[in-house]
Write a structure and sequence with these properties.
Layout lengths: L8 H7 L2 H46 L5 H14 L3 E8 L2 E11 L5 E10 L2 H13 L3 H22 L4 H10 L1 H5 L2
Antiparallel strand pairs: 1-2, 2-3
Helix pairs in contact: 2-3, 5-6
Length: 183
């Protein structure tokens, strides 16, 4: 047998309204969690925007590599600006373009979120050749045997794709042997 105590009117009155307080507290916690989720999401979107801007800027710079560093970096800056980013660094090493961009986003009362991303672009054969030479020293034999031909082919293909006549493309290539040999 269980013993139950009678609930008096005073005990009922003391409990009155506590559900409203609990509901208010729960709504406050949910609102804070939703705000935090939105802020984290905004920061992630800013980061992804920076990565995309860096990738496309590097590709634009690599596409203009034969025209020189000034032209390549101008193309990278145009792309970065059109994507709402700021180009903070741009360099050209042969036909390889390295860029760094910064994207800022206002996060309300939290402040300003800034994301930075870097990217590298260029012909695949040349990138593989450069990374191999960085680890093993200058690969003189592979430059002439297997490296120079694909690099020259990709440089000629990009020049011809721009509508440049074959004679001019070959002339440009013979004037820039450092682009093939990676000097």
């Amino acid at each position: 047998m269980t013993l139950t105590l009678p609930v008096t009117r005073t005990a009922r009155r003391a409990d009155r309204g506590s559900a409203g307080v609990w509901l208010l507290g729960l709504c406050s916690v949910l609102a804070l969690a939703a705000t935090a989720a939105v802020l984290v999401g905004s920061a992630l979107v800013t980061r992804h925007k920076a990565i995309a801007a860096a990738d496309l800027s590097a590709l634009a710079a690599a596409g203009k590599a034969l025209d020189g560093e000034e032209s390549a970096c101008a193309a990278a800056m145009d792309i970065a600006t059109s994507m709402g980013a700021r180009l903070t660094a741009c360099s050209l090493s042969g036909v390889i373009a390295d860029v760094t961009v910064t994207v800022s986003a206002e996060l309300g009362v939290v402040g300003l979120a800034t994301a930075q991303a870097s990217a590298r672009a260029g012909p695949a054969e040349y990138v593989e050749l450069r990374s191999a030479s960085a680890t093993t020293g200058p690969p003189a034999a592979s430059l002439t045997a297997g490296g120079a031909v694909p690099i020259a082919r990709s440089l000629l293909a990009s020049a011809l794709a721009r509508g440049q006549p074959l004679e001019d493309a070959l002339g440009d290539l013979s004037q820039r042997p450092h682009l093939i040999l990676g000097e």
